[in-house]
Amino acid sequence: MKQPEISSSLFKRLRFILVETSRPGNIGAAARAMKTMGFSDLVLVNPKVQGAQLHEEAVAFASGAQDVLQAARVVGSIDEALADCHFVAAVSARLREFSPPIVAPRQLAAQLAQADYQAALMFGNERFGLPNEAVQKCNALINIPANPDYSSLNLAQAVQVLSYECRVAVLGDAPMTEGIGFTGDAASVMQIEGMYAHLEQALVEIDFLDPANPKKLMSRLKRMFSRTQLETEEVNVLRGIAKHILAKK
pTM to 2 decimals? Predict the structure, then answer.
């Protein structure tokens, strides 16, 4: 399956906004989470540490995503961060009495992948989350369905969950990478049947299978191999093993 053009997809239309982040390391880890999923638009609203995106802790936690950090914009208000956005969702573990509609991450990701507008995901401070007035500016409130007995995700983990869901929504069932791994030609029915006959002959030769009382051994082996979707090369390997057994005997 051919992957969609990233330049015209959600990868370029989705902004990640971190509001009043306390630790530079969390900013770096969030940048890393974004980059692993193909996103790069990062905006910081009043980070607690001046120059946080270039802080040594942020760079260390970014672990190769320094380009995302260096390109990050620092702004003085949420309104500035949202200036050109048409849709924004707040990410919060705390539900509010007066909040926008609550949406699951996967549902929201599917919605954003089908849209054609600039969107943003907004994440609050590590200790206090997002203030109510920030949430009220949003079109949706995202609540990650975590363990109710311990639903504490750190900032970068929340960014990772949302960026992953958005990537999957865009790419569907397409592989994350191409050209990795080996897939051979599927073995034909005749090739597989020949392998079974060869294998049965070898098992008889080493007295593992009694031809006078075979019971269900071959049926069980066939059932086992039928779940593997054997390839031609794999059939040849198994026949080579059987041939070697027979030669030794």
Answer: 0.73
